[in-house]
Predict the 3D structure of the following.
Amino acid sequence: MPELVRYAVGPHNSRGRRWREAPPVGRSELQRDRDRIIHSTAFRRLEYKTQVFVNHEGDLFRTRLTHSLEVAQIARSVARSLQLNEDLVEAISLAHDLGHTPFGHAGQDALHHCMKQHGGFEHNLQSLRVVDVLEQRYAAFDGLNLCFETREGILKHCSLQNARKLGDVGERFIKRRRPSLEAQLANLADEIAYNNHDVDDGLRSGLLSIEQLARVSIFARHMKQVLREYPNIDARRLVHETIRRMISTLVVDLTRQSTKNITKLAPRSVDDVRAAPLLIAFSAAIERQQQELKQFLRLNLYQHHRVARMTNKARRIVADLFHAFMNEPRLLPPQYRDREQREAARTVSDYIAGMTDRYAIREHRRLFAVDAI
Ligand code: MG
């Protein structure tokens, strides 16, 4: 690993773990965090959770697992150029979606709606809850006992009300401070990854067409470049060549603009970074083009009628499961049943949030189809 800049997170400035542990052998503390995340149950479930398309719709679409790997890849290469902590961005990237419900945003909205009277549901907060509480594999503590900086990066957003209950990781939302540069970077790598792979999956599924995308400036510009170099290229390769150029433009722009911001502010420590405005950022021009692409995806992909049909089913499945378990807690598996009565709704929410797409569909069938067991 190249030498780190002094405002990167490193062993000299980490706030450490909640429970003291013997130092790791042969790997750093943050590498240990990454390893714990990869070995967690919630991480394996990412393979069967989706963002836009439901798992059974096709084998080639992104799942939350492949998405998280793409985020980690992008974040690591930028971290390396900026001499930030690659292990930390990798750990945050791999963990950032652990708290997602089945069925992407539809599932999350439905669960939040069901939980309105019981403190609501936020997927960021749930990701933190997974690594802090829900993973139960160590003898001495609940959760994975990750370093403060990894937990800080996982909690991207949080309401003020929830921030007050969270102690150390909640503080920055109350004091209006920023997280480490590594956390800022993982956040934007997430954006680069999903914008680009949603274009790819959207085209592959036939919900989007190249003609439509040719009206979006960042796609059009890169597609023209490819066609100039390869006038006879077939459609599938044209898409890949365009997307890989888009990713590269975004990565280069992010690296350049962030370097500029950092040079200008000249932070000397992680604390300087936390007190400064966001330093990891796109240039204004690229930011505008990213927004245009996002808006296009919202209108043409996320709100496409075929996606909406599945979204509608997903919402019903989550709501049906929630109400069934709330009305009859004996339907829950034993390990969820003996939690305290006042936590009933949170217990049900944890159980549902942990489900993969296919498990939720199966569980729904088992509970509601008379001939299913
Ligand atoms: Mg993500």
Notes: The pocket of magnesium ion is lined by residues 67, 96-97, 190, 194 (CB under 6 Å). The mean pLDDT is 93.
